[in-house]
Specification:
The chain is an alpha/beta fold. It folds into two domains: 66 residues, Orthogonal Bundle (Helix Hairpins); 222 residues, ATP synthase, F1 complex, gamma subunit (Pyruvate Kinase, Chain: A, domain 1), CATH 3.40.1380.10. 61% of the residues lie in helices and 13% in strands. It has a five-stranded mixed beta sheet, with helices on both faces. Helix 1 packs antiparallel against helix 5. The longest helix has 80 residues. It is elongated. The two termini are 34 Å apart. The relative contact order is 0.18.
Length: 295
């Protein structure tokens, strides 16, 4: 009985130690997700302005062309950028991204297109290397707090592969941060670009741009910046989603630890009560035996 009590006490201490760790992770993620969300909100005005300027240039009456806007006649290979995290304990965050990437690559292969992987984050790199999937390029250490230079490096690598005709399309798989409770893994094509017009009335009149030296030159300079901005926004969305998913997972782990501690404490009390009852019975039995011998 005493051995059983020691085992239960040891389990309670172990769960309490684990609970302290998960609680600390929860608090850290809660603070980081606020900062990550602020960075997402701060990046949107720039991306919106670049998109507005690009739309104005692309829709000008002057005939312009650019390889990033024109679909290839034959698509043989497609680059797939997969944004994952560098650390675990984030619930289904990485699993959702990798599953969405697998679905995208299955669709590409069904169309006769060879997918080529570009991966950020140690979790994604480890996942594909364990399965012996060849990676065209990989980056680590960017997921937690990405900056624009990181995004530009990734975008330039993919643009170079596209312009050198190593791939004919570029896709991106990342987690879209909708809210603290909702994050969605999405797959989007980023090259060739599709500049879509919207029926919504803009909050301000669209400015009339004067292009110097020409609309074509402006488009040549603007499109790479637009791609880098799209990649940067996706990396910020992914970082915010990672912290939100980790906070939610650690909260669930902390709550589960509390329930387990309650169950183990109840088991310990019951075992302790049974031990005390047994000791009382032994004392009473011994006293009765002594009384019988004395008489």
């Amino acid at each position: 009985m005493a051995a059983q009590l020691r085992v239960v006490r040891r389990r309670i201490r172990t769960v309490q130690s684990t609970q302290k760790i998960t609680r600390a992770f929860e608090l850290i993620s809660a603070s980081r997700v606020v900062r990550a969300q602020q960075r997402v909100e701060a990046s949107r005005p720039y991306t919106n302005q670049v998109t507005q300027a690009l739309t104005s240039v692309a829709n000008t009456e002057v005939t312009i062309s650019h390889p990033l806007l024109e679909p290839r006649a034959e698509v043989k290979a497609a680059g797939v950028l997969v944004l994952t995290s560098d650390r675990g304990l984030a619930g289904p965050y990485n699993a959702n991204v990798l599953r969405t990437a697998a679905e995208l690559m299955a669709r590409l292969q069904a169309d006769g297109v060879e997918p080529r992987l570009y991966v950020t984050g140690r979790k994604g790199v480890g996942y594909y290397r364990f399965r012996r999937r060849e990676l065209a390029e990989s980056w680590t250490g960017l997921a937690d707090r990405p900056d624009y230079d990181d995004a530009k490096q990734v975008a330039d690598t993919m643009l170079e592969a596209f312009l050198d005709h190593e791939v004919d399309e570029l896709h991106m798989v990342y987690t879209d941060y909708v809210s603290a409770a909702t994050q969605r893994a999405e797959a989007r094509r980023i090259i060739p670009l599709v500049v879509e017009e919207t029926s919504e009335r803009p909050p301000q009149p669209i400015p009339m741009y004067i292009y110097e030296p020409s609309a074509q030159a402006v488009l040549d300079a603007l499109l790479p910046r637009y791609v880098a901005a799209r990649v940067f926004t996706a990396m910020l969305e992914a970082a915010a989603s990672e912290h939100a998913s980790r906070r939610r997972a650690m909260k669930a782990a902390t709550d589960n630890a509390s329930e387990l501690i309650e169950d183990l404490t109840r088991e310990y009390n019951q075992a302790r009560q049974a031990e005390i009852t047994q000791e009382i019975m032994e004392i009473v039995g011994g006293a009765e035996a002594l009384q019988s011998n004395g008489s």
